[in-house]
Sequence to fold (266 residues):
Amino acid sequence: MEMLANITSFYEDALKHGDPRVESWLLMKSPLPIALLFVFYILMVKCGPAFMENRKPVNLKFVIIPYNFLLVGLSFYMFYEFLVTAVLSKYSLKCQPVDYSSSPLALRMASVCWWFFFSKVIELLDTAFFILRKKNNQLSFLHVYHHSTMIINWWLGARYVPGGQSFMVALLNSFVHIWMYSYYGLAAVGPHMQKYLGWKRYLTSLQLLQFVAFTIHTGYNMTTDCAFPQGFNYAVFLYGLSLITLFGNFYYQQYVLKKQKSQKQM
Fold:
């Protein structure tokens, strides 16, 4: 009972330290909905392929195409908002604390941080579409790890640090997703689009570059005396290293090893 009381006290205290400006926004009041969504997502990944095993793939072409281009538009909007708000707020790349005031620019940054978090909730549909289309080869550890952790990471980001140093991660990721979902949208149009999609390797390189960039940015901030929570810096830095490792391995397996194998076969 004492342990339960301590956990409850810690939970309530943690919520009190959240940003009061965002508390009433959708999914922000409590971590419980996101925790349940995380559990549902993992269950979907575990049970979905078995559910579809004896069923035909679902034709989702006319859902996937608008879905992808909707995310292109949302990603462009977020990239624009992060960039313009940071410039107007005179953000520093060396040290940028969160502005918790109710000024128009501070609220604008908090708002786009929330949209970035919510975009990660929307993007869980990527996995659902893979399962329904029986594209189980796409359900890699990298895919599941990245999608499942981003909803938790950015719930914490939007709830506690909506702005400041964290803007760099979201800015870079939004830019990359403009191109990523453009690629997916064009690929979904049909096989005749393949001749325009020879830049997939460069897309993976761009994804890797963003992780390196925000890891360096966060790593530098960890060495400075900056009024941004160091706990978040450490978490982002370690998360960046994990993504560099996983995406680096994917790049090596997909583009280096395959090329070497094809050359040996010639």
Remarks:
- DSSP finds nine helices and no strands in the chain.
- The CA atoms of residues 97 and 194 lie 45 Å apart.
